[in-house]
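G., the chain you wanted modeled:
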Amino acid sequence: MWIADKWNEYEVLDTSCGEKLERWGDYLLIRPDPQVIWQTEKTDPRWDRPDAHYHRSSRGGGEWESFRLPQEWSIRYRNLQFHLKPFKFKHTGLFPEQAVNWEWFSERIRKSGRTLKILNLFAYTGGATLAAAAAGAAVTHVDASRGMVGWAKENAASSGLADAPIRWLVDDCVKFVEREIRRGSRYDGIILDPPSYGRGPKGEVWKIEASLYPFLERTARLLSDEPVFYLLNSYTTGLQPAVLSYLINSIIVKRYGGRVQADEIGLPVTDSRLILPCGACARWSPL
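Predicted structure as tokens:
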């Protein structure tokens, strides 16, 4: 498993009974986590004094119960700063486990010895975009949500990357890739974190089991003659690392050679000293 263990301002303190106790900078949050099916005793006293607690509803969704949590706050990872806020569907605007992927592709960007063109699709609030830009890449950031792209720009400004070579685009990722193919655009690295389900601007249905393979085939056509990496991340239940590996081997390795490594990504849990699994990932790089 690839573990995001280099955080100073974020920490999973404990997990039990379907929830995780987290430290986000100066604030303690309790959030549900479907992976936490164990029912170990909650011995950490901080379970009793969270700054906010997200409660699931039996009817679906849920809501935050806030005690001392501000409407917005920030945490840092290395030289990057991220604005956070209690967002619907339990999120805060950042997935800390992704830092292990940021480390991986940032090293490849720095070692390339050239300014790479990187495409970040389904880019959310820009964690991967900022990491790639900080490593020296020129990044195209694409997300269908105008609010998420605006949030990502704020994170860039806070991280000293307001003037970095980042192209911010509010667009449907599938339509954007199709246009880029027609334009003959090429990228040295591609980052993808597709949703399980979604709808395009004209009602087009994205269902990952049916839509992912043809979409990956299209993105492969955007890789340059000397690509440096291709990264596919997924939080969809059932898409195990071996499945992602098979996809990338069938599409990217068939065209470019190289190798694929696939595994779970996770976060260390302080109290138990175990690892909380947080998704699956496949990484391609040339030999």
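The first helix runs from residue 99 to 111.

Shout if anything looks off.
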